[in-house]
Amino acid sequence: MIKKILPLFFGLLALSLTAQHCPDCQALKEAAWKKGWDGQAFQKSSLHRLKDMDVLSYALELELLDPNKRFLKGKALLRIQLLRKGLKEIELDLQGLKVQKVKVNGKKRSFTHNDPLLLIRLPKKYSLKQPIEVEVRYEGAPQEDKSWGGFYFEQGFAYNMGVGFADNPHNYGRIWFPCVDNFQDKSTYYISLITKDSLAGYANGLLVEDRLLTNGLRKRSWEQKEAIPSYLAAIAVANYSDITQAFAGINSTIPIALVVPKKDSQKAVASLIHLPQALSAFEYWFGPYRWSKVGFCMVPFEAGAMEHASLIAYPLYAVDGSLKQERLMAHELSHHWWGNLVTCAKAEDMWINEGFASYCEFLFKEACYGRKEALPILQKNLAISLYQAPKREGGHRPVAAVPWAHTYGSHVYKKGSLVAHNLRHYLGDSLFRQGMQAVMDSFAYKNLSTEEFCQFLSKELGQDMQPFFKNWLWQAGWPSLHIVEEEIGANSIQLSIEQQLIGRDSLYEKLPLKVRLFLANGEYVDREILLSEKKQQFHWKKLAAPVVYAWINPDQSLVQARFEQFFEDWNSQKKELSLLQIKDFRFKRPCLAAEQLHLAYYPAAEGEAYWQIRGRIKGASVPAELALKQPTPSARLYYRTAAGQDWLLYPHSGKSQAGYYYIEQVLLGDYKWGE
């Protein structure tokens, strides 16, 4: 799921990331919790029930007659396989609703409803060979969560969002039907919705019944044959119409349903025009789409979307006819692999759901628009992970085993997405694709923990994944990789590369890194290295031509604590590079043949922050307007020609203006501030 986020401010740079303008953001949960958190909201976890029983299926019949009136009347029939003898009662979750009566195998049974726990007495004798049938009749006003999620009745729409951020557990099936409300208990669903005949009810799966009843009512029934946890069950009622499409998937033709008010039909089609490209990209990386349909159901929710299986609750603001919210579309769709098909075993493993779904925004944009257009997603996610997440979440944290309060935080979403990207780098595209498809095959409709993920990939791919998981998931922080010494000889180069650390004390082990050597003949060669030590030296000889400069991690295939920009075929158009602490950058002459520039900004790690500029240029410098963020009005700009050289005052004139220092000659080398 993706939730709207408030504006974020990253130290010296200010990035407005509201979902209206930047769809790649989850909600600012901390702010929502401050608004709505109640310590009494902690409820008993239902994970212990897994050893007692397994809910095989739910058959729900729900009356929702007025989408503007918060009231629901329901009958739930649960087929439950009991797993051990001696049980006197079973436990279900039902929150905020009134239970009228309960039956077990057709006979009335006593019950106790200590909201949200529904305890149902079992017969003295029961068989473990046959499932029991539990019927619960109930009614009431399904609740909204105090911060995000729950059940909404507004503007002629009634719909649910399957989680509640301010409640524990976050799963929120229990607010509209009796269930085992955790990530691990997965069941099939048959959902019947009784509404006024002017309305249409939608749910997971395929429509199997649509008929008019007496007294101006309508009944529509939906069957979800693929097993899902309770938080992915969904319903929506409004004056809807269908837009039906089809996608030629790997295994079969997949029906697509865009469920939308008629007045928004054309805008919905335009805003979701690249849905087939997203499906193609995700099937390429993760294997076939395994659900009965692709469904996007438009709702008047103002704070994001929810990935209900085959019926994504999608905000009306995202279907305005533009493509501004495409990443939101890609994120929610990708959950049908990460989250819905393979589900995190527990909340502490949420990066499996949300980190991968956030990375799928990059994979979609890479497939649809090209890698160059997608790379800014990585840089923005790095900025949030490096600057904002530690401030909001009490420091740098491991991505796995996050505490409950940060289940839906930036470490899980943003750093989780970068961990997925780095996993692709560690394995290479071919093995990454093979490994992820094997995960889908082996854990389809099942749960996966971080530990199981590591063990499975190690066995499946025949290589030890412990170093990767230790580096990126079980420990906090970031590497900052620097060329600290550089000696260029005749057709040779000697480099010393140092690991500096942010937010951790232990070095990264077996860290794969590409070093690109740009040669005087206009070509380049790549060298692959592994880093495990604080400082390592590398010497490459007998190259085809002298080395002009070296650049580490040229493809941004490994995300580390560095922001960068590559220029070729430049023009005089002004660029704002806020992530590089640069306000304005404008070249004052056209790009000449074979010219190129690499810019990087290294945030302060174990040393000072600095800029690095390397490239091929004609002449000693490039005339340009470059505005560097100045920490204080008295700060002075220092420069060195290469790593390991002495820092000297920048040799050309510049001027301070409104917190920035403007220079007009870009020299190849490094820049930093000093007094």
From TrEMBL:
Q: Which Pfam families match?
A: Peptidase_M1, Peptidase_M1_N
Where does the secretion signal sit in this chain?
A: 1-19
Q: Residues in domain Peptidase M1 membrane alanine aminopeptidase? A: 280-472
InterPro entries xrefs: Aminopeptidase_N-like_N, Aminopeptidase_N-like_N_sf, Peptidase_M1, Peptidase_M1_aminopeptidases, Peptidase_M1_dom, Peptidase_M4/M1_CTD_sf
Sorted keywords for this record are: Aminopeptidase, Hydrolase, Metal-binding, Metalloprotease, Protease, Signal, Zinc
Q: Name one GO molecular function term.
A: metalloaminopeptidase activity
UniProt cofactor(s): Zn(2+)
SUPFAM superfamilies recorded for this chain?
Answer: Leukotriene A4 hydrolase N-terminal domain, Metalloproteases ('zincins'), catalytic domain
Q: Which domain of life is it from?
A: Bacteria
**UniProt domain Aminopeptidase N-like N-terminal: residue ranges:** 57-232
To which protein family does this belong? Belongs to the peptidase M1 family.
The name of this protein is: Aminopeptidase N
**Annotated organism of origin:** Saprospira grandis (strain Lewin)
